[in-house]
Write a structure and sequence with these properties.
By secondary structure, the protein is mainly alpha-helical. The chain has seven helices and two strands.
Length: about 160
């Protein structure tokens, strides 16, 4: 009796397994008929995909920029009066948030008397104050500028 029951179990198992394989094959065939696979070999499709997955920014170092490009960048407005565009942008946007209107006791741009009083500490002293922060001004003036860039930013602010 056990041989008959084992034999019928194996037949049932093989029948069910065969049915599942047949069912899977039918589903796969229907899937290819309903939605055929895309042809990604077209140059237009490849360009479209590459433009969507392209990184937003690129890291460039001084070695990546040829000498001709560096001079063109400086001539095209990279620096104005010896102040790099990144410094001007930081001063105008981040520093200007308080210094343009004098918020929280910040000396206003163009207020020569107030700036002259602060300038008595010297450029290095003013830069040290910016680096450590003072009153409502956060350390580094709320920017990610390096110490040398902060020194340039302070010099630029004194000329505004």
């Amino acid at each position: 009796m056990s041989v008959d029951s084992d034999s019928s179990l194996i037949k049932s198992f093989v029948s069910v397994l065969g049915g599942l394989v047949l069912f899977t094959a039918c589903i796969m065939y229907l899937a290819t008929v309903v939605a055929p696979p895309n042809d990604y070999s077209s140059r237009l499709v490849q360009d479209s995909i590459l433009s969507r997955i392209e990184p937003i920014g690129k890291v460039r170092t001084a070695a990546d920029v040829p000498a001709a490009d560096a001079t063109q960048t400086a001539d095209a407005g990279g620096e104005e009066g010896g102040v790099p565009a990144a410094i001007r942008t930081a001063v105008d946007s981040v520093c200007g948030a308080c210094h343009a209107s004098g918020v929280a006791g910040a000396p206003k741009f163009g207020d020569k008397a107030t700036w002259d009083a602060r300038a008595e500490a010297g450029l290095d002293g003013m830069t040290a104050t910016v680096i450590s922060g003072k009153g409502a001004m956060p350390p580094r003036g709320g920017t990610q500028l390096s110490d040398a860039e902060l020194l340039q930013a302070v010099e630029y602010m004194l000329t505004k």
